[in-house]
Amino acid sequence: MQVLRTDAARDVGVMPCQTTDPEVFQDREHQRLAKSLCAGCDLKRACRRYARTHREWGTWGGETNEERAAAGYLPRGSTKDYWQRRSVLPAS
Ligand code: SF4
Asked: What are the start-end ranges of the H helices in the chain?
């Protein structure tokens, strides 16, 4: 699991990421699968908000690193320049 520990998570019970190899939510090559698993999760919105707030890496709430960075929430330790070099953000 992506370690989403909130009251909402306790209420939902088992989330798809709890029963799936964690690498699916971390590896770029598995992003499509991770996004599809998140799409059916009741915590999708809360999870996305959590990842943005805590600047997480990986796919959270159906949102990838690239999508989070493009929305202005750079994953921890990354810089605007890093995402510009990957054409996720426009050059300054
Ligand atoms: S939205 Fe995705 S990463 Fe978040 S709790 Fe649900 S399955 Fe896990």
From this structure: 7-12, 31-39, 44-54, 65-70, 80-85
